[in-house]
Amino acid sequence: MTDSTHTSPPRFMSWWKVLLPVLIGLAVVGWLFWRDARAHDLGDVWREISFTPRVLACVALAWVFMLGRDFGLSWRFRALTDRALSWKKAIRVNMLCEFTSCITPSAVGGSSLGMVFLNREGIELGRATTLMLTTLFLDELFFVVSCPIVVLLTPAGELFTSGSGAFQTGLQYTFWTVYALITAWTALLLCGIIIWPRGIHALITRLFRLRLLRRWRHRASELADNMVSTSASLRAKPFLFWLETFGGTALSWTSRYLVVNALFLAFVPSAIAEQWLILARQLVVWVVLMVSPTPGGAGLSEWLFTEFYGSLIPSAAMALLMAVFWRIISYYVYLVIGALLVPRWLRDAFGRKEKISS
User: What pLDDT is stored for residue 3 in this prediction?
Assistant: First the structure.
């Protein structure tokens, strides 16, 4: 007898989706190398890097911070599922979500398949949908809370002061525009899943009946339904639940930012007094990357790093080499892990389901 609820494997493991962000990133890095080679000898810059115990320790620290990021998100999955997920399963779900984020445009987001990953790890699909909507709310809430704090604590005129005047203006405009959109979206999620779920459901349903928005009515209706079901689950949660899940969120994002701080300690020790500014600019970088049209921000990330941190690094060539290190640690490693993990996960998860339902 066949299980009517059985679904086919998600079609995200196409090799071109893995290769595309790699090719985009390599193309941009190649262009940056070609551009900077006219003014700097990259070979000389590389030879100037002495891999002393201090440098190696700081590079190792950067990897530790990325492990802290993964620990925070895995911890959050465990907390959200009331420990229904083991550490092994929580880490696997986190890696799968990160992989799909790497191969989809940042503006689209790759965590939408998280509900599928959770479901295949034993979480009921409706609850899995609720959990992923909650993770989305927590991530957006972190940005809404942390951005004003960072701006207030950073000396006026230093946060966006890097690159040409046009770059500074464009970056600042993009940052505040994206932040405004994040704030509005977070307010909608807050009202939809905590404060006024039925009212937001009715508002979204009526709004997407308009002719201009009618083509997205089905997706909007699903979102509204998910908000109502999520609200029923979350309203009964104690304060400690929110403290723990938001703590995991803050740990994961802060650890991700600190990767760049560790790289500066390794390759630009003279910038030790600028550690707060380096951290603050990472927040700006990740907010801007939320609207990247390329998979995982490939290409845009490398260029943005060299431009935005250029004023703190002795040479453009050194900035480019640091950008490559940063992307290897925070991005390309997840592509490799995902490419190795996904085929086996698909075989185990869906093969096991087929045996049960047959």
Answer: 40
Cα-Cα end-to-end distance for the chain: 6
Query: Do the beta carbons of residue 122 and residue 84 sit within 8 Å?
Result: yes
SS3 309: coil
Cβ–Cβ under 8 Å, residues 62 and 262: yes
Please check the confidence at residue 194 and state whether its pLDDT lies above 80.
Answer: yes
Whether 205 and 221 have beta carbons less than 8 Å apart is answered as yes
Q: How far apart are the C-alpha atoms of 310 and 317, rounded to whole Å?
A: 10
List of residues 6+ apart from 185 with CB closer than 8 A: 140
Place of tokens 């550690």: 275
**What is the widest separation between alpha-carbon atoms in the chain?**
70
Q: Please return the burial class of 308, using the count of CB atoms within 10 Å of its CB with bins 0-12, 13-18 and 19+.
A: buried
pLDDT above 90: residue 293: no
Side-chain half-sphere exposure of 254, counting CA atoms within 13 A: 12
In the predicted structure, residue 358 carries a pLDDT above the cut 50: no
C-alpha separations of 300 from 28, 94, 140, 283, 296 in Å: 8, 24, 21, 15, 9
For residue 129, what are the contacts with CB-CB under 8 A and spacing of at least 6? 115, 226, 229, 230
CA atoms of 54 and 88, how far apart (whole Å): 33
DSSP H helical ranges for the chain: 15-37, 42-48, 53-80, 87-102, 114-120, 125-153, 165-190, 197-207, 217-234, 239-267, 275-289, 300-308, 316-327, 333-357
What whole-number distance in Å separates Cα of residue 325 and Cα of residue 331? 10
Question: Does the reported pTM lie above 0.70?
Answer: yes
* Distance in angstroms (rounded) separating the CA atoms of residues 138 and 147: 14
Over 90: is that where the pLDDT of 280 sits?
yes
Report which DSSP code applies to 162.
Answer: -
CA distance 294 to 103: 9
DSSP code string of 106-130:
TTT-SGGGHHHHHHHTT--HHHHHH
SS3 295: strand
